[in-house]
Amino acid sequence: MKPYALCKAVRLHFICAVVVIILGSCSKPTAPDSSWQWPLPDGMPYPVVPAENPMSQAKVELGRYLFYDTQLSANGKQSCASCHQQRYAFAEPNRRSIGSTGQQHRRNALALVNVAYNNTLTWAHDGLTEIEQQLLIPLFSETPVELGLTGVEQQLMQRLSRPPYPQLFQQAFNRDQPDMQQVVFALASFVRSLLSFQSDFDRYAYRNDDAALTSEQINGMNLFFSERLECHHCHGGFNFTQATSHSKQLLDLRPFHNTGLYFAARPGLAEAGYPQHDRGLAEISMDQADDGRFRAPTLRNIALTAPYMHDGSMTTLEQVLDFYQAGGREIIKGDYAGDGRQHPAKSQFVRGFKLTNSEREAVLTFLNSLTDPQFIANPEHSNPWLAHP
User: Fold this and answer.
1) How do residues 118-175 score in pLDDT, each as one tens digit?
2) Does residue 11 form part of some domain?
3) Burial (CB count within 10 angstroms: exposed 0-12, middle 13-18, buried 19+), residue 138
4) Nearest residue to 311 via CA among 105, 161, 74
5) Could you give the number of structural domains in the chain?
6) What end-to-end distance do the CA atoms of the chain give, in Å?
7) 330, β-bridge pairs
8) How far apart are CA 294 and CA 97, in angstroms?
9) Residue 86: CATH number of its domain
10) 159 and 207 housed in the same domain
11) Phi and psi at residue 264, in whole multiples of 5°?
């Protein structure tokens, strides 16, 4: 197939891969402030934005200051950016995050890439569908503590009286005395602005640059979207995740999957499964069928966001590819010894496959084509406090 024909075919496959019917808008996107323009490729649908928090340039800028401000934690030691670092596509290179008081979390920090399109937030919660909801967890969670703001809200408001905040709040909300809702709205607006559509793959697929991908990357792309590998069933669509919603989408799918990472004996329980300290969606649904089901993250900028999996238990993309080739993971010894491939809730799409060495390298080079160098260097996403004395 010639590159230009393959380009058209892959665009069609994105639509089919997430199994959604795109016939028109099911809900109109919230009209942004005239100062705000979505930096999207031609034809890309708008994200759906809550009516009570429309986008504006002033809110995004205020949110950027808040995102990088360590005074947003109770003890002044951490900011949102401590665990979501721009050079790692707003993820971090740690297996699991550590909160402002030193507590280690159960999970790896998700990359904040195109979060505006997510239909669910966090690794394993089907009830968190808006960024404004999700933000309350890192701000106020007590088990474990992240930023630790519970009970110190008034102290935070005092901290936000220092320059340049009065002017920023005035521009964003027409008042210079902040409240917590405005803090959340501004942070959500900044996070929604973190859009990444400047990778080599984007140039190929959306900007008609047939030379943007090498022949090896195109071979890897064909394998990725093939029924042989099945990757696209969970990581399909323009955002490379099933957890996607936008202004032209009629159907949202449940984007949580058990990939066969664990199937271990659990002390005190008759059935084996994922470790008791993190059973994924089953903790929310209370349904054993959801044991070990986690949200499929976006693969955009995936080469920058190691380590991988919800618990950071894989350090390289090569290890991740080995895992899916094997159809899951068998752990021979230790606390979690067992064969995850045998988990009864494992996704039907994680069946294992064989690759030649050249095919394997092609898939890896394709995944690297999803890296967006402009995203991790964009000054509009960077730390504004560095410009202050």
Assistant:
1) 999 999 999 999 999 999 999 999 999 999 999 999 999 999 999 999 999 999 999 9
2) no
3) buried
4) 105
5) 2
6) 57
7) 339
8) 17
9) 1.10.760.10
10) no
11) -115, 155
